[in-house]
Amino acid sequence: MSTDGRTVLLFGGKDATVDKARALGLRVVLIQHPERMSAHQADRADSVLVDDYTDWPTAQRLAQEALRKWRPDAIVSLTEAGLLPAARLAELHALPGMPPAEVVARLGDKWRMREHLARHPSLALPFGAVGREEDLRSFGERAGYPFIVKPRAGAAGLGVMRVSAARETRAVWRRVRELDGSRSDRKSRMFTLDGFFAEPMVPGPEFSVETFSFAGRHVVVAVTEKTVSDAHFAELGHAVPARIGPADHDRIAATVRAFLDAVGLADGPTHTELRLGPDGPVVIESHPRIGGGCINELVLSAYGIDLASHTIARPFRLLPELPDHPAPQAAACTLFIHRRPGVVTAVDGVQRLASRPEVLAAEVSVRPGDRVRPLRDNWDRLGLLAVTGPDTDTALTHCARLLDEELLLRTRPEEEPGD
Fold first, then answer.
1. What does the alpha-carbon distance between residue 306 and residue 240 come to, in Å, rounded to a whole number?
2. pTM, full prediction
3. What secondary structure does DSSP assign to 334-355, as a single string?
4. Are strands 7-11 and 27-32 parallel, antiparallel or unpaired?
5. Which of 336, 109, 366, 125 is nearest to 233 (CA)?
6. Which residues touch 58 (CB under 8 Å, ≥6 apart)?
7. Which of 94, 127, 170, 416 has the fewest CB atoms within 10 Å, i.e. the most exposed one?
């Protein structure tokens, strides 16, 4: 039972989340989803409660048990599915560690975010509900083509679709009806797709901005360059620092700071995705957490700043506040692995890659016999390689070469007989 003000209640997270909390000297009570539980977490946490915390009554029950037994001093979540239940419970029990639940809900529901930003003309985009096929056609007539249809909430690009012309509205509407109200049919069932809407497709390069806020002072830690394709909604790579000039960096940073003020986010991390459009930066979405795809590891390698540790430490004031303009010491990148659709026939080289000193992470999520789907969103990626280097160009070139020369991952079309 906590008596020293140093017990954290974690909602979800990875093995490293528990390790970082322990490294800060905290007692760790973990509420974990069955899909994410590991033996490492069970060994490292002081107490573990496992159930579907995305169900609010279940989350309340788990929290009550943790509060009764351990009296945690803060509630923290670094994972998308845990953000809202953690924020609601932190508010309910007057514990620090999370942004206000209203702000978390506003960012977690992209429709609500657009409604809120409509009051801020410099940050607003046209948007419209999609409740019937005619809504798609009318939005295209009003806002122009191409435009994007997306679920109000979700993750990893699941359910996001591009409508390039009026003739595509029927097929998109069929897909909306298939997905609406369902849980993810991919690698996770932790997210419900409930309601779709349309917004313009902003042209231009895509970035994410990794920030940490201290009582309304928004520190732009890194601008992350993203590799994307118009053919699908899977991100193909991340790199820091982004290869942009000072003027674009300043415009992006100013837009994100204005956005965070507008939505009411004053403390903690944010991962904000935007495009640098013809008229300037446009925020696409934002999350009150650190970015996925090894972005925390990239930022740590390039800037020496561990955003995950800062998130856990913030309610306890265990780490000093960050300076306003962190300077990179190096560069780092992640490239995601994908192959043609079919069946995996061979995987080799992952351990050799992981042992190299410049490699931050090497992961492959498939094995021989597994099916590879067409690349549509982040769930269809097969793994990643993250490396560090002296500059962004070098890191990206070296990462691509290692994937080409050192990783064996083959597939064959499903209709072909195996060897």
1. 14
2. 0.92
3. EEEE---SEEEEEEE-HHHHHT
4. parallel
5. 336
6. 51, 52
7. 94
Tokens of residue 284, six digits: 């696409």
Give the C-alpha separation, 121 to 210, whole Å. 24
Among 72, 38, 66, 68, which Cα is nearest to 53's? 66
Say which amino acid occupies 418.
G
Segment 157-167 mean pLDDT:
87
Task: Give the span between the Cα atoms of 397 and 402, in whole angstroms.
Answer: 9
Domains of the chain: 7-98 (3.40.50.20), 126-200 (3.30.1490.20), 206-412 (3.30.470.20)
pLDDT tens-place string over residues 210-252:
999 999 999 999 999 999 887 777 889 999 999 999 999 999 9
Residue 88 in tokens: 């609601």
Q: Which of 155-164, 169-178, 379-388, 401-410 has the lowest mean pLDDT?
A: 155-164
Listed residue (179, 222, 220) closest to 331, CA to CA = 222
Confidence at residue 229, expressed as pLDDT on a 0 to 100 scale = 81
Distance CA 353, CA 403 (A): 9
